Records
---
Amino acid sequence: MPELPEVETTLRGIAPHLQDQIVSDVVIRNANLRWPIPKDLPKLLRGRTVRSLQRRAKYLLVAFDHGTLILHLGMSGSLRILPHGTSAEKHDHFDLVLGNGELMRLRDPRRFGAVLWHEGDVAEHVLLAHLGPEPLSVEFDSKYLYDATRKRNAAIKLAIMDSQLVVGVGNIYANEALFRAGIRPQLAANKVSRPRCKRLVQAIKEVLREAIKQGGSSLRDFIHSDGSSGYFQQHYFVYGRKDEACKQCRTPIKHIKQGQRSSFYCPQCQK
DNA sequence: CGCCAGGCCTGCACGC
DNA sequence: TGCGTGCAGGCCTGGC
């Protein structure tokens, strides 16, 4: 379940292997991801050089001179670097074969992910054009969050998970950040005061930074093993801890549904 | 067997 | 009219 830290870790893992490499081939085994993988991708990329790699929200952007490969891991996707000739398994849908004897392989059992191609300025792509600021940027500060939530009557948790407001805050980190900020997930966004917006921004940055740091420490494992190794084992204060004792006050953690998603909170620590 | 998890786009209804 | 907002549905598989 890649959230932003996992995507960032993936970027750091694959970047050194792809940077300045020539694509020798593209293999599409199953084009039926969230959107179809473009059929002409092999033709488009063969013989072309990877110029740079970036992340925007949870999208990985692989830039070539003539366009950008856009990758999204959806909810079950992972990328690995493997030697040429490594046999593909059941859910290995896409390979980028490189001139250095390696290949980058996308595995995605649930196929919520995406592999797309865009010519021209990638920031103008429909999927990227309306995205809010990066959570770790200076642009995402308490003033921004306060202003952006004034007209929002919806719950604060739904607001921080809205990619038009801020990108990259998935369900787990939304829950954890709200706990750290002492805010109930169901509180209306426009009722969150300035000081609490400040705490929330700090908490979001904190949980994401910690997770990225953790990811970095197991980067080698991540790249060479099954893509789901220990880099995600942050200790959670509330996520998935229904009825368990709050780590701060021992009150049982509550579980509710918001927007068809699970929310967890401590009724004592979060108001 | 049924249900749930996850990201997030899409479509619809609503109010200003 | 058009926009922002809010909400539900859908995609898909593995694990319980």
---
Amino acid sequence: MSIEASAKRTRVRRSPEAARENILAAAEALLIEKGPQALKLADVAAAAGVVHATVLHHFGSIADVHTALMERMIRQLVAQILEADDPDEPAATRAESGARMLFDAFESRGAARLAAWLELTGESRRLTLVREAVNEVVANRLAPKGLDPAAAEDLVLVSVTLAMGVGLFGDSLAELMGKPPGRTRELAANLLRGWMAAFSAGLIR
Amino acid sequence: MSIEASAKRTRVRRSPEAARENILAAAEALLIEKGPQALKLADVAAAAGVVHATVLHHFGSIADVHTALMERMIRQLVAQILEADDPDEPAATRAESGARMLFDAFESRGAARLAAWLELTGESRRLTLVREAVNEVVANRLAPKGLDPAAAEDLVLVSVTLAMGVGLFGDSLAELMGKPPGRTRELAANLLRGWMAAFSAGLIR
DNA sequence: GCTTCTATTGACATTTTTGTCGGTAAGACC
DNA sequence: GGTCTTACCGACAAAAATGTCAATAGAAGC
């Protein structure tokens, strides 16, 4: 019943890359605000200011939007970690800041929820980008500290797994147990510190 | 085109409790085999040998089936942990077996995937059962070992979070990184051990 | 201005999934 | 055997979600 019911929308014609970027940025905002289950074709399109057929034209399917977004977020995270790395900083502080970024990305930025979604829908197998992302962090950030590459990969594997667990279930679990928000993250950080301390002290392995 | 196309099915009339149990057991098998996204009304009903309207009659909605199943699995896990607890066993072994059950439940039994599903769909808030489940484990299993209740709750919180992370992402992440399956779980167990060792040695906290 | 290319659109088709409703039959109780 | 309760069924309704397709309109090149 709107007066403008039959008004045609004025088109914006973007380059393919700009169009994809526009859509992915909108999808990321949607992910952070409402979670991955809100990444429906119609919703993503509306947030990006286009029609859902346009999204399909650029990505082929909604699943491809999901994986493209996940890859984009992985690249952002890796870039952020490498960029923020200050060789002058003491090793302990550098480890702390790396862990903080990891937790932030998976917790507040929604990466853990998107990853869980991909895992549940079986789309995670296509994320071959993960391997090179890990290699990049290991080679540029952990190996220079004199860490054995294999041990560094293990450290990344547990850290990421833990950070995803915290990002996904941390606050809900804490709330269900009557603990303050952020408590799980606190304990998880402590867990990693304790492990590294025990490792250095030769208590394990 | 089937010859028996219009054959009426012979009804089995169960008690309400038996009917619910039948449906939940079928749903659990489905969960383990295909994951939570396969827990659709029609699929659960088919697996249980009833019509989907029957499922709705007993649970009201498909979301209620999900939470009922999650609660059932939580109860099973708690019962299993308390039951298998042997006071004669050395403390270290008891901790190991508790951790093993936790990892098994969340990994192979599908609890982590269901929990993630509930988390993503916003249904996890209704799992008030969690609190009493934790209390039960703390009171009957951890406190008797002379552990401070608050510390015991913290231990449960991190352990469960970590186990969920492993159960959900462990194998996929390991595979994406070219590690053998089970590697993530191995590292996670080591992480917990190291933490406790560091704690005992006074290296942290 | 004219042509070409294709990003974008609107309308339609289809599938999947959840939920409603009136009627039917199994089994308990008398 | 008769009655009553309600677990169960079949058919239908409706919404949500993905995807197809022909037509349109920016923008660049000539």
